[in-house]
Write a structure and sequence with these properties.
By secondary structure, the chain is of the alpha+beta class. The chain has 4 helices and 7 strands. Strands 4-5-3-6-7 form a 5-stranded antiparallel sheet. Strands 1-2 form a two-stranded antiparallel sheet. Helix 2 runs antiparallel to helix 3. The chain is globular, with a radius of gyration of 18 Å.
Length: 179
């Protein structure tokens, strides 16, 4: 199947100004002189100065939404109020101090969201990143969105959504009987 879904979604996310969107390119693969097809080479979501530029030593984190504990990350945080399961991508593994800090931060963020007070929300959440990510996910009808392959990061004491990832089951590319 074509990997155009990922390429188009990443290009769209970059055009909307979404931070840290993975770079990708296409390559024709020949193995032992035999053509094996066209493949997409994609930069993984990772922490580095050229990818997700955060400082994990100073309470900055890269996390991934998990549908259940143990899905893809061995270290998780279940948020205190809404019970959302987040897997730690970085730091891996987190220290006890980092886990405690993130639990306190998420308690404040969730309480701000539930308050309905926009000023409280924006003290914790970068609303623009959530809007850009939501628009990208909805436009491409990504069925993994808010189930798995949904990333968040904390930078400068703010929660951001992104970078986007994994659009192979988007744009109608899924079985109605399974999903």
């Amino acid at each position: 199947k074509t990997q155009l879904r990922n390429a188009l979604a990443y290009d769209f996310a970059q055009e909307t100004g979404m931070e840290y969107t993975s770079n990708s390119c296409f390559a024709e693969l020949y193995f032992n002189g035999e053509y094996r097809g066209l493949y997409q080479i994609c930069e993984p979501v990772d922490v580095s100065p050229t990818q997700v530029d955060i400082d994990t030593e100073n309470n900055e984190y890269l996390m991934e939404l998990e549908p259940y504990a143990g899905y893809s990350n061995p270290y998780i945080l279940t948020t205190p109020v809404l019970k959302i399961i987040l897997g730690y991508n970085e730091p891996d593994p987190p220290t006890q101090e980092q886990r405690a800090w993130l639990k306190d931060f998420m308690t404040g963020a969730e309480n701000a969201l539930l308050s309905g007070d926009y000023e409280q929300v924006t003290a914790y959440v970068d609303v623009d990143s959530f809007a850009r990510c939501y628009i990208t996910q909805e436009l491409f009808k990504n069925i993994d969105y808010l189930v798995s392959s949904t990333r968040f990061y904390i930078k400068g004491n703010k929660l951001y959504e992104g970078p986007v990832w994994d659009f192979d089951l988007s744009s109608g590319n899924c079985s109605k009987s399974y999903y």
